[in-house]
Amino acid sequence: VQLQASGGGxxxxxxxxxxxxxxxxxxxxxxxxxxxxxxxxxxxxxVAGISWTGGSADYADSVKGRFxxxxxxxxxxxxxQMNDLKPEDTAVYYCTASEYYSGILVKADDYVYWxxxxxxxxxx
Length: 124
What we know:
By secondary structure, this protein is mainly β. The chain has no helices and eleven strands. The protein has strands spanning 2-6, 9-12, 17-24, 32-38, 45-50, 57-59, 67-71, 78-82, 91-98, 113-114, 118-123. The strands form two sheets. Strands 2, 4, 5, 6, 9, 10 and 11 form a seven-stranded mixed sheet that branches. The protein has a four-stranded antiparallel sheet with strand order 1-3-8-7, with no helix packed on it. A hairpin with a 6-residue loop joins strand 5 (45-50) and strand 6 (57-59).
């Protein structure tokens, strides 16, 4: 079972990026999914989470109004649209999933499946 994250890159302050997370080996259509990030020398932190239906989402305060999490039409993939990027958004971004039907998971320990990460670098 793998989660393949992609879409990272080097951008400038104010630019946008769209991260994608596509699973292989099984379907995650009925799983809660999310994005976390880890900057150099810092702990992994929650960025955004979405319910298995796609009807509910939650965000870290630092990205509210700039980032949007969404699910694909078949609900098997998850995306993170990142607008107005800032240097402090520089990190490795990880997608994650876990079987959960009661809303959104915001703690890393609650997630079971993790992708390999994609690097986002925002230059000032």
